[in-house]
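Take a look at the protein record below and tell me what you see:
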Amino acid sequence: MKLLYLFISFFKIGLFSFGGGYAMIPLIQKEIIATHQWLSPNEFVDIIAIAEMTPGPIAINSATFVGYKIAGFLGSFVATTAVILPSFLIVLALATLVVKTQNNSIQQKIFKGIRPAVLALISVAAVYVAQTIHIDYKMGLIFIISLASLFNKRVHPIIVIIGSGILGVFLL
């Protein structure tokens, strides 16, 4: 039964998420914390951090981790498959249509209309994570240094992550 719930939950996440992993975070949070209580809010924030640091999309990494925590290897396989299956099926079905109609003004307007909704989903995820981690002034300092480094296009995100971890060892 756990495997079925994992599949349904992550299939919904994959089906109703537009804009990539960050846009999926509110849906993942709703399913794994609010609906099923599979993780605590702090565990969820840790998963997002781990999913961000590891190679691959956040949604897939999160699905793999949650699935493993809930039902072992088979759970990670089911959750990961479920989260990618909707996109795979939709892309397969719509690929030829989108290519044939790529210059269609209605299609272009639809995609432009979706962009602000994706930005809103990413913003909700950012606010949720910020509220959950209880930032003190030392964490705020690491945040400001990280943000400034990321806006400086010459600093690679991996360097920012490693540097933040090192700062965490000395400051926190």
